[in-house]
Amino acid sequence: MRRMTIALGLTIWMAFPAWMSGVPVALAGGAASQALEVEEVALPPLGVPHYESSGTYLRVSSPSISLRVVNKVLQSSALADEKDYAALALRYERQLGKALPVEFGRYLVMPQKGLVSASSVVVSALIPVEEAYPAGVVDELWQSQTVESASGRAVAGLQALFSNPKRALSVVADRVYREVVTGKSGTDLCVQQVEGHHVTRGPPPEAFAPTAADYRYFALTPSGVAIGIPQGAVASDACGRVEVTIPYLTLQPYFNSLGRLLVSGVRRPVTFG
Questions:
Q1: Residues 251-258: contacts with CB within 8 Å, 24+ apart?
Q2: What is the bridge-based pairing of β-strands 224-229 and 105-109?
Q3: 246 closest CA partner among 126, 109, 122
Q4: Are 116 and 216 in contact (CB under 8 A)?
Q5: pLDDT attached to residue 128
Q6: What is the pTM of this model?
Q7: CA distance 244 to 263
Q8: What's the rounded mean pLDDT across residues 92-103?
């Protein structure tokens, strides 16, 4: 709904043998990219009655590199998202007033190490978010942040990493569809049981449309391009949020120069937490 994605790059393309293994050469030690430390910083209070915030945003550090701009972008993105939730919560509070139950609503942000990369080239994260309201409504959503460590410029979505965005997003949509319905996304059984949905021989159904908006939550992780899909977007709310990681090898033919630059700089954090 209200997510911001930013990304940049600064490094070199990878050798073909790295793609044969499905792992960027950066992860095998072949590119001039330095892994960073990642610290979790507590979110500030929401300042809305009956609501509270919990969780963290990310801050990166290195003994040899200035990362002030990167950390400003990470902080601004996280706090803007929290502010959006606070505005919705305040509107809800004003509308219902004393009719609200006693229990609190909650905004929860839960960074996960496996969905984060951090290097002197690029910092990228796909972060689960939970928005709960006092009436019992809970939305499972995502944040995503991808920032070049050198300049802080933003990439205008996943499509900006591809030379042929239309074709590449079709590949992404097909992979996500097959992973969600029959693969390892963790929601496949739920989708089959709740939706009665099975893979067809044709293109993915409309819910998995190959548009930039449908795949706007993403991160370049050590395992591949992680795609986050909010609760209810491709299946029943009961199935929760969806995360699918697409190996770099699958998307290698479609990356443009920016995509290749970014992917070749991916590193696992030195420390996390």
A1: 251/162, 251/168, 251/171, 251/172, 251/225, 252/19, 254/162, 254/163, 254/164, 254/167, 254/168, 254/171, 255/161, 255/162, 255/163, 256/161, 256/162, 256/163, 257/13, 258/9, 258/155, 258/160, 258/161
A2: unpaired
A3: 126
A4: no
A5: 98
A6: 0.85
A7: 17
A8: 67
Domain ranges within the chain, ordered by starting residue: 16-272
- Do 14 and 25 form a contact (C-beta atoms < 8 A)? yes
- Spell out the residues 6+ positions from residue 268 whose beta carbon is closer than 8 angstroms to its own: 27, 35, 117, 118, 222
CA–CA separation, 124 vs 210, rounded Å? 22
The tokens 């919990």 sit on which residue?
A: 54
Q: How does strand 51-61 pair with strand 105-109?
A: parallel
Q: Which helix (H) or strand (E) holds 123?
A: strand 122-132
Tens digit of pLDDT for each residue in 177-201? 888 877 655 556 676 665 555 555 5
